[in-house]
Structures are given as structure tokens and as C-alpha cells.
């Protein structure tokens, strides 16, 4: 049976409503960031600490000649520090801050997978009251029986308290 134009248009629209997210874990919680922000995933490497930076900025590292800041996303989110394992890695992201390209590494416990999440599977960020900052959460993805916290990586790393970091 031939596919009608209406069916084909609906199928194309549904596939275009899906967005790809790289998911990663911090402890038992899973998060996702838009795949278009991800440049690469690398193993943990030496990081040179920087004085007078926020507690969650581990320092800087040399990535093939480019010096980038490395952010401990666990510390940024107020989570307890854990041991580095063989699954701990750095997701190198690219974004734009104040109209300039910017790269940074975020330390995560482990990378999980790349997921296609349809728009109808993404709920708005729950409200927790005025004392809880959720501006960096773009939504909550429902995948099968699991929930993924979808991050707006620009808001996670583009805050004004990172202005003293080289490259910002």
C-alpha cells in the first residue's frame, strides 16, 4: 500500500520534532544536553587549578593546543564529590557567550547514550518556588519509564560568575 502525502508529511513532521541529546550520569541522576553543543568526549586529563575562580571550576587544560576551562558539574549543582573512575570523562562543549565562540569541558561520572527525544516527551521544568534556581533546566525528558533532566548548557556555563576564567 502506497504512503499518502498526508501520512508522509506527518511522519516527516514527527521526525523533525525529535531532538538529539547526549545523556550522562551524575550518580544515579541522568541529564541530557543538546548534541549540537557537544564537540567531543575525552577521558579525564590533567587540569591546572586557577586561583580566584568559583569552587566548581577545576581549572584549565590543554586540549590539542587549545586551553579550555574544566567545570566540575557535580560541584556546580551542589552534589557531593565522588572518586574518579574509569568511566569518568569530560564532555567538551561549544557554545557562544556574548557573541564569541567558547569551549569548555564538563566533568561527568559517565556518558550514557545519545537519545532522540520527541517534543511531546519533554515537559516544562517543574516549579520549586522562588528559592530554587531552575533557569538552567530546559525541560524534563520522559523516555520509557525514565526521566532525564535536559540542561540548557549555555545557562549552565554562561553565568556571570565565570567571568574571571580565561576565554570567557
TrEMBL record:
Residues 18-162 form the CheW-like domain. One of its GO terms (biological process) is signal transduction. PANTHER family: CHEMOTAXIS SENSOR HISTIDINE KINASE-RELATED (PTHR22617), CHEMOTAXIS SIGNAL TRANSDUCTION SYSTEM ADAPTOR PROTEIN CHEW (PTHR22617:SF41). CDD domains: CheW (cd00732). This is Chemotaxis protein CheW. GO terms for cellular component: cytosol. It comes from Anaerohalosphaera lusitana. It holds the Pfam family CheW.
Amino acid at each position: 500500500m502506497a504512503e499518502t502525502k498526508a501520512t508522509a508529511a506527518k511522519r516527516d513532521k514527527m521526525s523533525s520534532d525529535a531532538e538529539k541529546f547526549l545523556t550522562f550520569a551524575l550518580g544515579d541522576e541522568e541529564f541530557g544536553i543538546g548534541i549540537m553543543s557537544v564537540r567531543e568526549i575525552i577521558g579525564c586529563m590533567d587540569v591546572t587549578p586557577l586561583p580566584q575562580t568559583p569552587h566548581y571550576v577545576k581549572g584549565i587544560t590543554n586540549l590539542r593546543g587549545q586551553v579550555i576551562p574544566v567545570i566540575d558539574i557535580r560541584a556546580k549543582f551542589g552534589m557531593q564529590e565522588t572518586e574518579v573512575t574509569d568511566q569518568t570523562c569530560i564532555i567538551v562543549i561549544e557554545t557562544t557567550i556574548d557573541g564569541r565562540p567558547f569551549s569548555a569541558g564538563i566533568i561527568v561520572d559517565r556518558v550514557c547514550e545519545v537519545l532522540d527525544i520527541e517534543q511531546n516527551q519533554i515537559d516544562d521544568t517543574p516549579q520549586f518556588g522562588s528559592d530554587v534556581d531552575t533557569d538552567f533546566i530546559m525541560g524534563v525528558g520522559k523516555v520509557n519509564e525514565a526521566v532525564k533532566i535536559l540542561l540548557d548548557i549555555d545557562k549552565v556555563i554562561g553565568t556571570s560568575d565565570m567571568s574571571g576564567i580565561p576565554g570567557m
